[in-house]
Specification:
The protein is 44% helix and 11% strand. With 655 residues, the chain is α/β, with parallel strands linked by helices. The strands form 4 sheets. The protein has a 6-stranded mixed sheet with strand order 6-8-9-10-7-11. It has a 5-stranded mixed sheet with strand order 1-4-3-2-5, covered by helices on one side. It has a 4-stranded antiparallel sheet with strand order 16-14-15-17.
């Protein structure tokens, strides 16, 4: 039993208490002092002196004649100031025409005369110098702070400060109850959280908390959702940051932000740091890198030093997520840094059902909706795909002005995600419709008469997206291993559409282009990776590429075998594909009458259920189902848009 979320975090009594961080307002004291200095410079002299009386020149001369002017100060600018007999100050303007006669009148009436050149006041001089020197002062201050290292860099416009979001008092509402399935992964991550909340249980057994936990898996499987659940359930400060936020255009910013992030975590220890997409800064060093000491490498070096440098008693755990583990630096993955690697794969049937139930909360489902059937129909879907599926089903219901989701809504949503939007404007001409029906009937016929192939669930010639037709298959179970017999019959199903076109129409069409591509890809894997060629033998040449993001790079540039081996592989691939096509043609010719009946039904009804196909073929329909795959059935040259089109597209393929 863990403590409730409101319980205070448990800290190590022996660990020293970190001093509180200095207040941020102290950095602005020098600005306040400068403003006060300017105010005192200009306003204090003004308030301490008397306000002078402004006199016209005529009034001034009258006062001189009346002997009420005590003194006068003449300035070169034509202004005059002085004191009256009453003690008041005055100002006046002397016209240039006054000349010598004015001086004579002033002397005759006993006025004390003085003169001075016009100049600026001391305050004006200081202000002008400040304005002139302010750019140099600002740049000098920034240079001084940057020259002091990471601490100074943080003060220089804040570019060295970490951009991590801190969740302490206000936490996400997501908990581990919102993460459906993945019990093993939740157990490992919960142990880390439990260690930070109750370290004394592990200390008694001499156990040490892992310093880092790396979550890896395909996109959309819920790695970030796990992190949100940790932030919502752990009663310790949680720092969340992305890998791309460390590196920017300034040199040294990434390393400075790493130092600042761990410094803030130490002040709040025990704490958790979550780095999403850590492959942005954790890529393998060296290799084809032109600059040996670039910004990304400095950031990675600082991260390695911080993870290996802090004391385990501080209670800081780094949680990271990536879908590219193969590019990470080995030093980052060694024990002592990321001690645990938690694999979060695509969900199984049971996990898909649990995920669908979580995302279906708050939605009105019709009585005909069976989420278990929906889960069976979505093999290879990630958690994000399942959430999108339910959202698309809700959108389909809204289009019909309904707020209750039906089973038909889920079927349309799945076809929308897998195949694309079905548009009424994409209408086939009669000859095209017949050709597509022949193509789809060929796929279905070969699948029905193949004992190891996945059973047929539905055949349709309704265009959707880039697909003009599709043959939907229901596997008996979610496979983990694939035998040669299954793979060879799958190749025959791929080529059943082209074989039917050649037999019935006398020629092929562009609709088989994607079938040929997928069949060639599967045959190449059988020869290169699975060792299913008697000529090449039990030798494996993996194609490489990302584990979770598909193959990448140029296969020719990284080919690990000779030209003669490549020629032998090409010959074997061509032989396997050719034999699969011959087998498909033999099935089509042998059951031509069943093919013609199925084509007629497709032209008339556009969609035929799998039960009808088995009745036409006179074969028993398999009753056990486990999921849905799609055979690639395109009547135009297009990219693959179906999910699970071949065994190697399945997440459980041993590829």
């Amino acid at each position: 039993m863990t403590k409730p979320a409101s319980a205070p975090p448990t800290q190590d009594k022996g660990a020293p208490t970190a001093p509180p961080p200095p207040p941020a307002w102290r950095h602005y004291l020098w600005l306040v002092a400068l403003a006060l200095f300017v105010l005192l410079l200009f306003f204090v002299p003004a308030t301490s002196s008397q306000t002078p009386v402004t006199l016209s020149y005529s009034s001034f001369m009258s006062d001189v004649t009346a002997h009420t002017v005590k003194s006068v100060t003449l300035e070169t600018s034509g202004a005059a100031t002085g004191t009256l007999s009453s003690g008041k100050n005055y100002t006046t303007a002397i016209p240039p025409q006054a000349g010598q006669s004015l001086l004579d009148d002033l002397r005759a009436n006993g006025v004390q005369i003085s003169a001075q050149t016009t100049g600026t006041s001391f305050g004006t001089d200081v202000l002008s110098w400040l304005i002139l020197l302010s750019p140099f002062l600002v740049f000098g201050y920034i240079w001084w702070r940057m020259s002091r290292g990471s601490g100074g860099l943080q003060g220089a416009l804040g570019v060295g400060r970490s951009k991590a979001k801190v969740f302490d008092e206000e936490r996400p509402t997501t908990t581990f109850e919102d993460v459906a399935g993945y019990e093993g992964a939740k157990l490992e991550i919960r142990e880390v959280v439990d260690f930070l909340r109750r370290p004394e249980r592990y200390v008694r057994a001499g156990a040490m908390a892992p310093r880092g936990v790396l979550m890896v898996g395909p996109p959309g499987t819920g790695k970030t959702l796990f992190a949100r659940a940790v932030a919502g359930g752990a009663n310790v400060p949680f720092f969340s940051v992305t890998g791309s936020s460390f590196v920017e255009m300034f040199v040294g910013v990434g390393a400075a932000r790493v130092r600042d992030l761990f410094a803030e975590a130490r002040k709040r220890a025990p704490a958790i740091i979550f780095i999403d997409e850590i492959d942005a800064i954790g890529q393998r060093r060296g290799g084809a890198m032109v600059v040996a000491n670039d910004e990304r490498e400095q950031t990675l070096n600082q991260l390695l030093a911080e993870m290996d440098g802090f004391d385990p008693a501080e209670g800081i755990v780094v949680l990271a997520a990536t879908n590219r583990p193969e590019v990470l630096d080995p030093a980052l993955l060694r024990p002592g840094r990321f001690d645990r690697q938690v694999i979060i794969p695509l969900p199984t049937l049971t996990e898909r059902l649990a995920i669908l139930r979580v995302h279906a909360r708050g939605k009105k489902l019709g009585p005909d909706v069976d989420l278990e059937v929906v889960a069976r129909g979505t093999p290879g879907f990630s958690g994000a795909d399942l959430a999108n599926l339910i959202n698309e089903a809700a959108i389909v219901a809204v289009r019909s002005d309904r707020d209750v989701l039906s089973a038909q809504d889920f079927d349309q949503a799945r076809d929308r995600i897998i195949l694309g939007l079905r548009e009424g404007s994409n209408v086939l001409m009669p000859d095209e419709q017949h050709a597509v029906a022949v193509h789809e009937a060929g796929h279905a016929l070969v699948a029905v008469y193949s004992d190891k192939a996945d059973p047929i669930a539905k055949v349709t010639i309704l265009p959707a997206g880039q697909t003009l037709g599709v043959t939907e298959q229901l596997p008996l179970s979610e496979r983990h291993l694939y035998g040669e017999d299954y793979l060879y019959e799958t190749l025959a199903v791929f080529l059943g559409g082209r074989a039917s076109e050649v037999v019935v129409l006398g020629q092929g069409s562009t609709g088989a282009s994607n079938d040929l591509a997928k069949a060639t890809e599967l045959a190449t894997k059988m020869v290169r990776e699975f060792g299913m060629s008697p000529v090449i033998g039990p030798v494996g040449y993996p194609s490489g590429g990302s584990v979770y993001l598909g193959e990448g790079g140029n296969a020719l540039s990284s080919r690990p075998f000779a030209e003669a081996t490549q020629a032998a592989i090409d010959a074997e691939v061509a032989r396997i594909v050719h034999e699969a096509e011959q087998r498909a043609m033999a099935v089509v010719r042998e059951h031509r009458d069943v093919l013609d009946q199925l084509v007629s039904l497709l032209v008339a009804n556009e969609t035929v259920d799998g039960t009808v196909v088995y009745q036409l073929a006179g074969r028993p329909e398999p009753t056990s189902v486990g999921g849905v795959t799609m055979a690639p059935d395109h009547a135009r040259a297009a990219t693959e848009t179906t999910r699970g089109a071949s065994p190697d597209a399945s997440p459980t393929t041993p590829a």
